[in-house]
Amino acid sequence: MIISKHQISSTKADMKIATYNLNGVNARLPVLLRWLEMTIPDVVCLQEMKAPDEKFPEQAIANAGYHAIWHGQKSWNGVAILARNEKPEEVRRELPGEPEDDQSRYLEAKVNGILIGCLYLPNGNPAPGPKFDYKLRWFTRFIAHAADLLSSDTPVVLAGDYNVIPTELDAYKPERWVEDALFRPEIRSAFQSLLAQGWTDAIRNVYPNEIIYTFFDYFRNAFGRNAGLRIDHFLLSPHLDSRLVAAGVDRTARGWEKTSDHAPVWIELADE
């Protein structure tokens, strides 16, 4: 059964995986705990935690029933993977290819036989400029690592805030984003190169032609007007295509008080 993206799902599949850019794990902790209690995902990828490792709310998340690993950083970065019933088995916490890169944007772990890659791809604005150059380098490293993951013959989910608007369908008034680092031709081309390796865009697989947004700015009543972007994505390795049974966006959580400017995105996978 395909569940509407407009509602919070309460249906339990064999494995429900979610991704959520929190815009501050401690500032949004009540929102996160409320959402976890309502939706009960099995695995959650978190981004933009804005907290160093020692400030991660491990006990509160454990009290909610989740084991966690995290790669924190003060300021704008930080990623984490939460799992019910078992502790994620950490595989790596950085992308290969640039040893001096100290930004906490990638975390990889095995959960229930699936390799989960949690990512927070750089924003890249203003473009052109040094931040955009870093985004392109990071994306190039990510594409190379993704190819290695595909060759490993392991079921893989790459989930997170990609800061990529893949097509015009994924933006409200796309003409306004032409020069933005989220929508520039180089970035869209890189995303298509990633898909061409053999990855499946889970949301587009389930909803090929629908307007679906995952991010809504805090300004100009963007959420109320449904003036958003689709920048939070799930990419699935070929092992998981046939197991994808549902996907969606928890828009309700975006409407709560003191919430993130992103909405949680989720998929459901059937057992093998």
Automatic annotation (TrEMBL):
InterPro entries: AP_endonuc_1, AP_endonuclease_F1_BS, AP_endonuclease_F1_CS, Endo/exonu/phosph_ase_sf, Endo/exonuclease/phosphatase, ExoIII-like. The keyword Endoplasmic reticulum does not apply. Residues 18-262 form the Endonuclease/exonuclease/phosphatase domain. Gene3D superfamilies: Endonuclease/exonuclease/phosphatase (3.60.10.10). The keyword Repeat does not apply. Its EC number is 3.1.11.2. One of its GO terms (molecular function) is double-stranded DNA 3'-5' DNA exonuclease activity. Its cofactor is Mn(2+); Mg(2+). Keywords: Hydrolase, Magnesium, Metal-binding. Belongs to the DNA repair enzymes AP/ExoA family. This is Exodeoxyribonuclease III. It comes from Pontibacter toksunensis.
